[in-house]
Design a protein that fits this description.
Number of domains: 1
Largest sheet: 4 strands, mixed
CATH class: Alpha Beta
Shape: globular
Number of strands: 4
Strand order of the largest sheet: 1-2-3-4
Distance between the termini: 39 Å
Order of helices and strands: HHEEEHEHHH
Number of helices: 6
Oligomer: single chain
Amino acid sequence: MIPLFPVDEVCPVCHKACLDSFGEHAIHCRELPGFKYRHDLVRDVLFDIFRCAGISAKKEAPVNFLTEPLEGRSTLRPADILVFGWVGGKHACVDLTGVSPLVGLGSSAFTVGQAALKAASGKVIKHEKACLDNQHVFIPFAFDTFGFLAPEAVDLLSRVQRVMHSNVMTPRSMDVVFKRLSFAIQKGVVAQLVARLPTISMSITCFLIKPHYIKKK
């Protein structure tokens, strides 16, 4: 609840909507930069977590069956992450989606996690049947900008955490999975906000977040 933007100024990225002082539009604006960066950052961190845990996976894997049901094979797309032999020997297609919990609220009451749960359900409707028909498992990985994770994402990370604890016996491996994902989501949100700050504010922000190294005596 910190005012960041002048009210009623046009978004400098999409040039379609006006900014609100607390950054609601900046968070759910789908224009680049920021929106895709947030998705790709979380995907890359999740993939690196699989790698560190010793789990065999591939990023942006071409599976040749993930598509929009109404548009056919003209919209074929890769799996965000393909995890090999994850469920009963079947490969798992992990599809990431990040949403703002503030979009489309209108006059309805705010419910924690509602947007992420809806996004996960939509992904299942789109892709689960195609995965099952091709002997794969589909796992929606939905999160919102407040850090809420859909149950499927929590289950996936919990299992990865157990594998990591078994394979990588270090003190920090106990909770590193959820902390890394949480930080990646927050970093993606910051990127969307900073991309829309006025030039002067952006310079101040970059100065404040720039690492400062203090030489030990």
